[in-house]
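Take our chain:
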Amino acid sequence: MSCRRDVLFWGGAVVVLVVTLFPFLWGLRTSFAGRLDYQFVPRTWTLEHYRQLLVRPEFFVYLRNSLVVSAGSIAITLVASLLGGYALARFRFRGQGIGVVLMVLPLLPPVAVLVPLIAYFNVLGLYNTLAAVVMANVVFNLPFTVWMLRNFIAANPVETEEAAMLDGCSRLGLLFRVAIPMAAPGMVAVAVFVFINSWNNYLYAFALTSSQHLRVLPQGILSFLGSWGTYWGGLSAAGMIALLPPVTLFFFFQKWFVAGVVGQQLK
């Protein structure tokens, strides 16, 4: 019985792994295979598709824009979610119980509020700027990140902060000297979460910008479909390069990310 259960478990795990990894592995294979090489295992391997991609100056513009949007979104979201999460975790105030509504807000489809958002940014004079894309990312990431940090700060012992206050530490000093170091894994988790969401997001940049020089990487890759048609090698190479930063970031900080998501302290 136990043997049959193990076979079912490992069989299911293999099926899930194959289904999950096959698109990535096929894209990786296509990005290094010859243009007319349709063998499952390519006869020859080449870097030509990457060379064709890297000689296009607009690709680096899209890359720079994605980095600006991701870095700006992380910086603003971290500060706002830290202050909001700390307030929800440590202070008692009227209406605090409805803070759980924050978990419902990410479930709202962004496209449902996109039209009023475009009109709002147009009134503010931010339409067709990267600042509008950054703000949209911040707005839609903030509910979940506030709740992430709130849970992480609440899991830390409040006695440590009380001891610091008895030693004369101010509330601001308490935040910088005690709360932030103790919440570091949670902040890393928030940074990774926001980076992945901002880096991969196509909708906000598409809706809030109209200039070609303001396109982010997902927009740029889709625009290559128009100019390259069925040049799958080049498109796969662009996908692999776009995939590299979030995957690298996740594997580098995965211990902090997992600890932050589940609200655990690192030992």
Remarks:
- The chain has a mean pLDDT of 85.
- Residues 57-90 form the longest helix (34 residues).
